[in-house]
Amino acid sequence: MLIEPRVLPSLTGGNKEVIGRWIARARSVGYDGFVMDVSDKDKATNSPEILRGEGVEARPFTILTRRTISLDDRGSVKARLAGVRGRSGTDAICVRSSSAEVLNFVAKDGRVDIIRLETQAELEAFNDGIASLAGQYGTFVELPFSPLVRTRGASRSRFIRACNKILEACGTHHARLLFSSDAERLVDVKNAWQKATVLQILLDASKQVGREIAIKNPAALVDRCRGREGNLAVATQDAAEDDAA
C-alpha cells in the first residue's frame, strides 16, 4: 500500500468535489491513500467524521485524518494532551516542538503518533535520546519533503545537514522516519518513488532506506491507526494516559 503521510487541501466549495480531485491526483501518482491534516481547517465543514465518510465512499482508496499540536514547553504537555484523542476525533496525533525536553516526553507518550520537525529550531532540538525513545515506543518522526527540492543556497544546505543527522539517528535507533509532501496544491503531491530517489541522491540514503521511508513507514502508520480502532487494549491505554495527565 502506498500512502502519502500529509496533505493539506483547502476544502472550500464542498468537501465531496474537492476530495474527489485530491483522490484522483493521488491515484494518478500511484497512491492508495493519504493522511489529511485537519489542524487548521473549519470544524464545521472539515470534521474528521465527514472526511471518514468520504473515505468510505472512495474505497478502496484510504483517507485518514491527523491533527498537529504545537507544544512550547514541558509544563503545557499534560494539559494539551489530556483527552486529546476524544477531542480531536482524528486518526493520528502529531506534535511539534523546538524543546528537546518536550520531544523527549512525547516520544514515549502513547497518545502521540508522530513527531513533526519542520523549523530549524525543531530540527536542531532532535537528538539521539529522542530517536531512541521513538524507536522503542514506535513513534514516527516526520520531516517535510519540499525543502529538499524547493529551497536553494544556505537554507537548503542547513536543511540537508539537519536531515542527515536525523536520518542517522533514526537509523541507529530504529525509529521510523517519514518524509511528507505537505501538499497544499494538487501538483505538490509527490509520488513515493520520486521521494525515494531524491533521498538517495541528496541524503545518500541507501535504496533500501529510501524505500522504507517512502513506502514501508507510511503504510506502518496506517496500520498503527487502524490497529488502534479495533484494539481494546490500546484504547484502554489511551484512556488511562488521559486520566493520568
Structure description:
This protein has a seven-stranded parallel sheet, sandwiched between helices. The longest helix is centred in the C-terminal third of the chain and has 23 residues, at 207-229. It is built from twelve helices and seven strands. It has helices at residues 15-28, 48-57, 77-81, 84-88, 100-106, 120-125, 128-137, 146-150, 153-173, 192-202, 207-229, 232-244, and strands at residues 3-7, 33-37, 62-70, 92-96, 114-116, 140-144, 177-180. It is α/β, with parallel strands linked by helices and 245 residues long.
What key phrases describe this protein's structure?
245 residues, alpha/beta, TIM Barrel, 7-stranded parallel β-sheet, disordered C terminus
Task: Give the topology, please.
Layout: E1 3-7, H1 15-28, E2 33-37, H2 48-57, E3 62-70, H3 77-81, H4 84-88, E4 92-96, H5 100-106, E5 114-116, H6 120-125, H7 128-137, E6 140-144, H8 146-150, H9 153-173, E7 177-180, H10 192-202, H11 207-229, H12 232-244
Parallel strand pairs: 1-2, 2-3, 3-4, 4-5, 5-6, 6-7
Helix pairs in contact: 7-9, 10-11
- According to CATH, what is the topology? TIM Barrel
Q: What is the number of beta strands?
A: 7
- Average pLDDT, to the nearest integer? 85
Low-confidence stretches: 230-237, 239-243
Rg (CA only): 17 Å
The helicity comes to: 40-55%
Order of helices and strands: EHEHEHHEHEHHEHHEHHH
Helical stretch tally: 12
Q: Please, how many domains?
A: 1
Kindly provide the name of the CATH class.
Alpha Beta
Distance between the termini: 35 Å
* Dominant shape: globular
Short account of what is shown:
This protein is of the alpha/beta class. The protein is built from 12 helices and 7 strands. The termini are far apart.
